[in-house]
Amino acid sequence: MNKKIIIAGLSVIFSLGLQAQDIILKGKELFGKLEARHIGPALMSGRIIDLENHPTNSRIVYAGTAGGGVWKSSNGGASFAPIFDDYAQSIGVVSIDPNDPDNTVWVGTGEIWTRNSVSIGDGIYKTTDGGSNWKKMGLENSERISSIQINPKNSNEIYVGVIGALWGDSEDRGVYKTTDGGKTWEKILYINERTGANEVIMDPNDPNTLYAAMWEFRRTAWNFNSGGPNSALYKSTDAGKTWNKIHNGFPKGDLGRFAVAVAPSNPKIVYAVVESKEDKGLYRSDDAGGSWKLLNGDFGLVVRPFYFARIVVDPKNPDIVAKGGLFGSISRDGGKTFKNLGNMHADIHDITFDINNSDRMYVGTDGGVYRSWDGGSTLDMVDNLPLSQFYQISVDNEEPYNIYGGLQDNGSWYGPSSSPGGIEARDWKRIGVGDGFRVLRHPTKKIIYSEMQGAQNVWRYDIDKNNTKNVKPLQVKGKADLRFNWNAPMAISAHQPDRFYMGSQFLHVSEDMGDNWKIISPDLTTNDPEKQDKESGGISTDKSGAETHTTIFTIAESPIDEKIIWVGTDDGNVQITQDGGKNWTNTTPNIQGLPKNTWVYHIEASNHSKGTAYAVFDGHAQNDMKPYVYKTSDFGKTWKSLVTDDIIGFARNIQEDYENENLLYLGTEFGLFITIDGGKNWSRFTNNMPAAAVHFIDLQKKTSDLVLGTHGRGIIIIDDISPLRQINQEVLNKDVHFFSSKPAIIKEEGGFGGGSTELQFVGNNPSSSGQIIYYLKKRHTFGKMTLSIQDNNGKEIVSLVPGKSKGINIVNWDFRTKPPKVAAGKSYTAGGFTAPRAKSGIYKVILKKGKNSYESSIKLENDPNSSVTAAEREAQFKTTKELYDDMEDLAYLVYQIDQNIKKAEEVEKKDPKAKKIISALVGELNSLKETLVVTTGDNYVAEAEPQLREKLALLYSDVANLFEKPSLSQIENKETLKNRLNEAKASFKKIEAKQVAKFKKYLEKNNGGAINIKSKEEFLSK
User: Fold this and answer.
1) With 832 labelled, which of 315, 654, 922, 939 sits at a CA distance of 20 to 30 A?
2) Where is each Sortilin N-terminal domain found (predicted)?
3) What is the C-alpha to C-alpha distance for residues 550 and 319, in angstroms, rounded to an integer?
């Protein structure tokens, strides 16, 4: 055989062998201790789907949310905590087992108020420990679960209503039943693939009697249809074996969505709000559905049935009825008349009455949970539910940087990434109303662009002047009417700061911040007339503009070449111009494996190569829940899919890392996914990161913070992702690897938060400490492991607790060294816990793991904004060191006193004859000690007068926490205390020379042993 062939073959085998040894880490094994940080906000909360009371404990309330999971309150709704973070965050219904209400709760996922921006569910879940742990119990293809009814006499018998798919046909719709606690399910009512069960109600006195509202519906990206011949209200009296329509008295013809409720105190009374063309409104039956009578057709009862289909009856009074709606309605005369509920956020989705007091109510809205104590006349918002639903976010370069974003039904806002005391509600500033979408900060000016739905308004806000101007592009002569998406795209040029882009079906550009516009493209969409100007809504007309289609949805100017602009449309076109808009090419035909007309949700133009871009396609509006993520490196001539089986949920956004082009961040409907190898392998990030829909991702260049805009859990930040940039196979094969990091800044900041109460949400600040970041190939479980900060001479400055997890570990150093040894006393002194601050410079980092030692370094730099001179800084260090030494001198002095007293008291117990010598000795030592430390009191009510230790510690702490030089009064006080310390030392010397000397002679004479006193060095080393 040819020698060259043999060598080539061996090379291939060797190469394959190397590839086989690649280490692929996933999830927590890769990310280690990198953690997400939640900053809210909660003052503009988010949509609540379902509220449920504990049947016997009025303090326990559950809230199911549109995109933020399930939250539980144990204090009557004053505050809530999340209990469902690891699972689908879109909730349809929460149901408490009446037989075991403290422990057993069921959750059906998938939002049931079917607007165009709703997320999806993935089945039904159960907890048997009050929400600590959950188990999926099936119905994985249900998509939207509306109802869970549990037999109050048999927990194994459960009925579930499945609305099903919103965007396509599905045979998984209908009413399901289990008789074995969810192990198996039987479909007991099914109409067809377009008709789902939007409500299932059980008679509270007879679990065999059930009502099921069946709803025919369909949403597309350009239309919505509610109602049809198959919508109907059914009743079963034999536990679901047979069903009959109960329409006696209902309107004729096609019906839509029903809202249904049975009065708990009198099940013969049933209320139903019926969607129909004629005689729509609230119907009442007094014979358990045998016949119906129309009582009321108020607008508040019938508005937007697809969005408001919840009616609730007071548990004790069948004539008190509440209905969700634009403002919510309540009747106290059995449905004859209604009035609006109290002042709160609009769009009311659920109401529940307190189990003991009907004047106490909970209301779920598009803006969070509200509570009332007076029957809905006045309402109070729950302030700690950070459920805000961002469509898009962006960041600026301020310090601290700000995050900007638009919210579902809650306007547009911006707030800081950190704030004294944490990020509070008052830190957020409103910059828009309505449904907020894109918000962008001008790169060099204090100008913010924001918009509301459908580009009805496009605001240019001057922060300094507090001035707002609408700069929306308008139709021009010779051009068609403009079609703006509900979430209209905006972009700012990286090359020309005043250049501002917007998209309708055309690409618009302004060179003067929106004052004047020109169109630089033809219609870039398919311009399909079948998807335009449809009469949306079905039985109830609902033409809000949310279904405007064949529009531009995403715009990306290349950060490398301003002539290269990418545009993506909601009907599937990926267009590119390489000459600033003169010529355009549709690259979608070049994308293999992509279904036709799939929505182009985001295009990311690369920072590394001008021919490279990423495109994320969202097919869920075509009932296609697969992720579609592509990359081109040749201006769209060819595209490569980056999707692997690791990705869960349809994708919405991608961010390329600014420094490492193989590091990509992907937002899907079920969370954040990261790849470090260009898309070959993806890992889901779950460290304090819920499975929330990530609608937008931005990367702050200065801090390397990854900022996520979620649609249900507000803003989430992963601080400093730079370690991920450095991970490669060489790193992964090391037992220990220290990541290089930017210098740690000793910030000269201080201040106070605004004073939020314990019931208000406050977003966490990032750590202000220096960080030592390293990778461990394996988790450290056995043997000693230490982490030490040392100076250049190898002297230990401080010992830190090392992280031992597999993957990335982060250890914070607050720039402090070891605190001084503090004199023992009756009470503690807070100032004594203060450790001196380390000087700026480079320090060794020594990690010892078993017998092995690993070394790195950390650089500390003074605050670049500091006004403190080097001489002042040196004076502060010098005085701190002197006070530190005084603290330790005092500690050693008190230690010597205590050891003498201890020995004397031991001897006295054994030999009462020594009392005379001991009494004199102990008396003088205690008299001296009482001037040095507090020896009485309880440090609170019976607080003693401060002695030398307390005064010295207070001064030491004040000076150690300074950055500038100490004041003259502090220097004078230091000298005064130093003199007192010297006097105390002298007094002790006298006692040693006289009383202690006598005591030692006694000990020698009577074989009493020595007084055990360590040297000062030994004492201070412990």
Assistant:
1) 922
2) 124-248
3) 49
